[in-house]
Protein 1
Amino acid sequence: MIIFGIDPGLAISGYGVLNYIGNKFDVLEYGAITTESCEEFPLRLKKIYDCYSELFKMYKPEAVAIEELFYNKNVKTAIAVAQARGVHLLAAVNNSIPLYEYTPLQIKQGIVGYGRAEKRQVQEMVKIILKLDSIPKPDDVADGLAVAICHAHSLKYAENFKILKY
């Protein structure tokens, strides 16, 4: 099963593409989509949409797992990131890919086994589980991979996390 994990963001959106077969992971790709703050907001959203649409066409994932947003003290930033997250979702919907969302607590639980784990612990586990030489950078990329791993570990219960039903 090809799983596409996304850590949604406006300036940096991390992603990971994994092939999960028989409790084993094969890393197909990981990286980040970035936009510059000097770009016009609608063009930043378009770039995110276009990049993810292209990646979805290239890898043909059977599931997209995305992190839910957590509360941000800066309301203006939270609204912009929420709008960007909507674009991530739209790209998956327009490519007819089932969507699943996980809270940060669920992701930490699924990776480390403890919902209050530190970010560094999650990153180390991503590196170990995927047998990577180093922790993917920036942090958003490791987070995208963590979401994909969490979904793989949750497949038995995946319907509980599905946000789009076809």
Protein 2
Amino acid sequence: MQPIALPDRAIVTVSGQGAQDFLQALITTDLGRLEDGEAKPGALLTPQGKILFDFLVTRDGEAIRLETGVDQADGLLKRLTMYKLRLPITLSVASPAAVTIQFAETSGGYRDARFAKAGHTVYRAYGKEMGATGIDEYERLRIASGIAVSGGDYALQDAFPHDVLMDKNGALSFKKGCYVGQEVVSRMQHRGTARKRIVTVTADSALPATGTPLTVKDRPIGTLGSVIGASGLAIVRIDKAGEAIASGEAILAGDVPVKLALPAWTGLEFPAEADEASA
């Protein structure tokens, strides 16, 4: 595929000698494991453990770059400024910013770790404006890979990191120490209490609009997120979905029968299926 310019992206940059230590104590990503040339997902959480801002993290020399949506940029900058106090760091924002997707290794590109987990080669390049043709192809790949984005797939301040697979895609650290919301997500991890997950949704005909409930016997089990044609993503209760799949009950998006699957790269299974396999 040809390079694709993404619309509505912004970059918040944290620079200065204390940039990494400052962010390490705030965001979910373990910056000590962030490699040069890598773009890793991350988030700044509420104290209650829900996603307040989401972004992709890269190194730009000694600075740390947070790529996010233009709708989040000012709020993220304001929140980081609140935490900054008198630390010797500098915060800046470029909104909108030129972000281009490329599908082969390129000088200055950053490999997107989310797609790498799903077995695809996707690079993000900054500062080079290119044509925006091919957005639908990129979205199809993102949906097929089970990669959720805020706005289309979940609302900020409404979803936990586990809901959108951040515990599986490298966005969420359980070893680096304290950060905002860390106690809540660590408790979910160790107790295994994550009940909602992103799944891929497929149908034999076009799916209804984003926001359509997914139901079993008229009871909601989730909500449809991003949609292109007959494919989409949804956050669902995996216990309820697993029960329906195991018993052969129809799962509907509006009035359209659908099939659900957990992304293979996660290693997750629907609980009812796992129980049957071990019986």
Protein 3
Amino acid sequence: MATKKYTVTLPEELAEEIRSEVGPGEFSAYVTRAIERQREQDRLGELVAWMQEEGGPLTEEELAAAEAELREAGQHFAEPRAAAGGDLPLAG
């Protein structure tokens, strides 16, 4: 992917904290990943808004089912960590 240099204004304390954590030459890559994640979140928000517009708000039953699925998924992914003493790294 082609790159182009842009000027952005960031809070100095935040920028310096990130720069010290990611190391020399990695600041731009970090900012790029952060912007990509934000764009994904924005698109998900747009999808949710569209789905609610098309199908209306979720019913109590639908919300309860979704919460149950989230709990089940959380337990599924927590089990390998617990079996290993909680030392497995999280993907990210």
Protein 4
Amino acid sequence: MSVSRDALVEQLVAVVRQRLLDPLEILLGIDQPADRVRTAAEDWATQLLGEDQTAAVMCTARLIAALYPGDHFEPPVGWWGTPFGRVVARRAGYPGVDHVSYSVAGAMLGVTRQGVHDLVNRGKLARHADGGVTTESISNRMRSLE
């Protein structure tokens, strides 16, 4: 379940370019500072994969706020299988959400919906009173498997 640092850096660089730099270049004619973006992405990856949980969560919050603005963060299910999605799930859970469906939990964990059901039945994941699985138990499960 570990995330490759290089894959994480590449994804962060690509998303920053796509969501922030390309629109600025189109609107303002500003050249993309590619070297600066790569350096920043390497710093973010260090924080996201580092030992300091608080720094990782704060970095996650800043990146999500900047790269996925809006009132409610709701990525497509497949996003959780990306390097950044895997790190977010492990370090911060699902920001702003206390429980998710079995299918989203499966995507966050990289297992099938049936696999989530089995983990819940074995007490490895916590069922939420409103249905689904608690995001806290998903994050705890991911951290315990490191």
